[in-house]
């Protein structure tokens, strides 16, 4: 990004395009625009709608904590047992494959675990199209297997295209599947529901591990799917592998989720499995579903309700729809459209481009918040290049302030989720680290600082004992570590039935 403090410059857009822009002052007088006072009056209204007080945050935390407890008791609730037992020891060594099916990309990894928190990774990413996300589920897994074959042929095969395996030997694979599944064992998982904009039919209610195995067999790959995990569980294990103070992992990206380690004796819904009650097992919280359907605890605005009711899963994933990167841009767009309908914004201008759902990317909010120029040239670029509308400085200042309100609310609600686990597990006094991944946490300006601010608003000074940190690449590496842990566990005959 190259920008002068005022006048002109160029910006790099999320698409990678470089665009030259100039401030335009004389045109502002040619079209009717809202006054600075009008925009300030509207901003006060939205400030009250999107601001969370510490008291309201503590109420959300208490309700969240109750939901976590209930989920450990009832099979039909989230809080999914993962059958990942305990923390990595550092003795896990060798080559392991990982496939990570995220909300945007398919990632294939070869992870060489070297022990003592060290590893090397070779990886490739494959873009998922919207068509693939809505096409038949088996075709989606065929695509995963095809990419895996390409990766294996490129990185593991010799000059003759052969793999150096003993007869009957297979390569262990950890499959990170970032969607709610019910599991009765670690290499099995029935998809409960698609999230993050996926809607591939013939998949919900089916064993996705078995579907992937069918695709692996179709491509004649000598690979054993050893562990099916959620990306958040992978991040938990990978983060602890590198930083043993880590007790919680969170994902803030296209979706949102958390994982932590629970005593088996406190997981009421798996007591019949005969597992030692003192053993520890990672729990996949699936907290994006918090307050779904009932909508009793989260501070939803009318814009959040529109997002929910027009989504492909109305009523579901209530928490996710307030904080995930998929929805923040849409929330801001709905506010802008309301002001257009009220005759406040863009009078005399064509605004049809802004009327397309989800056209306003959350990446635009990041750019708007980080615009360093006096004239807010970045925001000029966004509105002229993508939406063909002219803006005044007062309007641009309003858009940036609105982006901050929506982004800050997302971070503070995220802090509520972390605080609920911290409070439930008694981590506050001793403190702990929280491994965090996802595009919102990693790329949205100030998101992590706002999470920490939120934790201190909830807990007071003791909130400083809870520290989030960037745990990039957790799902791929974590998946491989869990495959290694599971192979070691099964090799010694420990809990083979799960």
What report would you give on this structure?
It is a single chain. The chain has 498 residues and is α/β, with parallel strands linked by helices. The protein has a domain at 81-243 and 473-491: 2-Layer Sandwich (Nucleotidyltransferase, domain 5). Helix content is 39%, strand content 19%. The chain has helices at 36-50, 54-73, 130-134, 137-155, 208-218, 231-242, 302-309, 320-323, 328-341, 362-369, 377-387, 393-425, 439-443, 447-459, 474-491; strands spanning 2-3, 8-12, 18-22, 80-85, 93-101, 105-115, 118-127, 171-177, 181-182, 190-191, 223-229, 246-252, 256-263, 280-284, 432-437, 466-470. The strands form four sheets. It has a six-stranded mixed beta sheet, with helices on both faces. A hairpin with a 7-residue loop joins strand 9 and strand 10 (190-191). Helix 6 packs across helix 15. It is globular and about 80 Å long. The termini are far apart. 46% of the residues are buried.
